[in-house]
Amino acid sequence: MTIATELELDLDLRGVGKVYASNQAEGGQLQVLDGIDLHIPAGEFVAVVGASGCGKSTLLRLILGLDAHYDGAITLGGAAVRGTGPERGIVFQDHRLFPWLTVEQNIAVGLRNARYTAAEKRELVKDHIELVGLEGFEHSYPHQISGGMAQRVAIARGLVNRPRVLLLDEPFGALDALTRARLQTELQRIWQKEKITMILVTHDVEEAVFLGDRVVVMQPRPGRIRRIVRVPLAHPRNRSDPVFIRIRDDVLSDFLAPDGAPQAADEFPGDAVHAAAAPLPSLAYLRMAW
Question: Most buried of 142, 150, 175, 260 (most Cβ within 10 A)?
Fold first, then answer.
């Protein structure tokens, strides 16, 4: 198969389903995802929103290549996704920085297996420190910087190997509201500059509408795409714009019961299932840059 150029790396999910063994589920199997069909053109920002247990993080796990046991097909640039690879990066909710490494060294971990010279790696790290606005903190350790700055380091580490797809798993979920808003704007700026595909999973409907070209609304038991909402607003976005508010409220209505109260969360939280049924592979297995 001919390898597509960087500009042709569309991501396609066709009929994707995932089942986990669970002694809590009827028949001993829990259908976490079912019939996921999604086409993401190269360079698009897609936000996936849904309640706990709808399979959002499982979906990212499959796209990243951490789990090969699923139904359907996932392709990037027409080639089947098999295992992890440097063309797909990820940023987690917890920054997961190494406490014994400096900001500069933590970012450089993203280039551990990259085929660059030492000089090229130094230049890439420098460029990405500037990209996330951390000049002057290169030699600081994680305990010497704020949570928001640590998350910037994690974003830089995810980008430094120049992936074509960056997956973001609730990257701002642990931050205070003001820091979260600032980093949402910063992420939007980075996405516009880097022009890569970004896929964000979040519980925050406003965050999804603020960042996404499209918002994929998921429903649980099993996880399915309920609908996809296009956000036809230019960047940067104004949260007070009446159109923004109307789209936000429209998406939010999918998560409200008829009386306006939040719907109950799924009885099988996704994180609990993942921890019990699908442990992370060893570092030797991972073919990611870090």
Answer: 150
